[in-house]
What we know:
The chain has helices spanning 70-88, 120-129, 138-157, 185-193, 219-235, 242-247, 251-256, 264-273, 285-292, 305-333; strands at residues 14-15, 18-26, 30-36, 42-48, 54-55, 64-65, 98-104, 107-113, 117-119, 170-173, 178-180. By secondary structure, the chain is α+β, with helices and mostly antiparallel strands. The chain has two domains: 14-113, Phosphorylase Kinase, domain 1 (2-Layer Sandwich); 117-297, Orthogonal Bundle (Transferase(Phosphotransferase), domain 1), CATH 1.10.510.10.
Amino acid sequence: MSKVKPAPLPPDTTIGGYRIIRKVAAGGFGLVYLALDSEGQQVAVKEYLPSSLATRAPGELLPQVQSEKLSLYRLGLKSFFEEGRSLAQISHPSVVSVLNFFRENETVYMVMNYLEGAALQDFIVTARDQKKSKVFRESTIRSLFDEILRGLRIVHQHKMLHLDIKPANIFITDDNRSVLIDFGAAREVLSKEGNFIRPMYTPGFAAPEMYRRDASMGPWTDIYAIGACIYACMQGYPPNEAPQRLEKDRITTSLARLRGVYSDNLIEVVEWCMSLDPLSRPQSVFALQKELSREGERRYTKLTVTEKVRMQFDSMVSETKKTVMGGATAPAAGKPK
């Protein structure tokens, strides 16, 4: 039986001077509401309420936390509060604006600008479903990530890491701004300290070091995720998750299929960002920006016939393996008709 998720705050609840209108999003880590401030302006209010540690009954304000989970709950709470404090000091069009943060109802709330638009993830799915050779034009990818990297550079200058960059956390506003949302520092603290069955990071976008408790993280960790996001914009799908890549890495082969569609430079940038060894990646956002802005070197190398045949063969072998494995497990999936 699946665990019951904490109930959202009821509409018209007032917290910290903000009136809740409705819940707009919920994740494993908390809830986001549309609310109105004292002047009637729309704001987004994010509530710390990790479903793995806390519950809340419908109509209630206070979360219920079991005594054995309390220390972990408070650890995440502290990290969430510190994240709000740090983000409130950052003012950049490509980073979500934190207007206020406060403690109430034995939890913490972060008040942000309410953004209208859609996540990059939605655009990728829509573009992919149109089945064109390019999911996004190269010029679109470069300008989009130029904006995001400007914001990320400021974040890193404030000694912060995002730690959960993915297409669902890059928001494209109705006035065509790209904004980084939903930072993951508190999530990272809990995933390192807690013994959770399900990881709190996003497979495909999380760097290999995020899977190890003893690994050091830095700007290169966010840069891996940026590379994975560009990959998703090119392919229409996320890359294989890091543990799979450590066993058998297919990134180079997958990107080679895009030769002639995207420039050699862009393909090389993605490979560089997604190096499994953190030291082999760009060590700063500035180094990546410099490389991504080299538009004058856009060579397009087309695949030779031999390479195309070899890739087709590899693809057929891979599909055959999937079919054989799928066939082996099929009887357990359900009753035959």
